[in-house]
Design goal:
This protein is of the alpha+beta class and 139 residues long. It contains three helices and seven strands.
Length: 139
């Protein structure tokens, strides 16, 4: 079954705000390693594909899309990803539309829901750096 995976380096923010409202970024290897395997399974990114004009035409072809994180020991960094299952390979235009949709969900949808939930529970919060989001489509 074809799939498409968007992934990028994750930044990890502390759970406590500074006096100016900013958050410190965490680079401690032990904390980053502790986030290996973290998933946000309350929502799937494909749940909202029909809501977007740009993705509704191929929404039936896409399922899944769980936000997950894994620790990469070779770079001592955390990598975030969203992997979709496809019933067929997507065209270049469809991949780009799915990429833009995924970025929107990361910054103002599922990703922000995940971040707010973790912050409310006093937990460190990983964010995918969307400027470095890579795409891999496998058939």
């Amino acid at each position: 079954m074809p799939s498409i995976k968007f992934k990028g380096p994750a930044l990890v923010a502390s759970s406590e705000e500074n006096d100016d409202g900013s958050l410190d970024l965490i680079t401690d290897r032990v904390i980053l390693e502790s986030l290996n395997g973290l998933k946000h399974e309350d929502e799937e990114f494909s749940d909202y594909l029909f809501d977007s004009e740009e993705t509704s035409s191929f929404a039936d072809e896409v399922s899944g899309g769980i936000l997950s994180f894994e620790y990469d020991a070779s770079s001592s960094s955390l990598i975030g990803s969203i992997e979709y299952q496809l019933s067929r390979s997507l065209s270049e235009d469809e991949v780009e539309a799915l990429r833009e949709y995924t970025i929107e969900q990361l910054t103002d949808g599922i990703g922000s829901n995940f971040s707010q939930e973790r912050a409310l529970n006093g937990k460190v919060t990983p964010f995918i750096n969307t400027e470095k989001l890579a795409c891999d489509q496998a058939s």
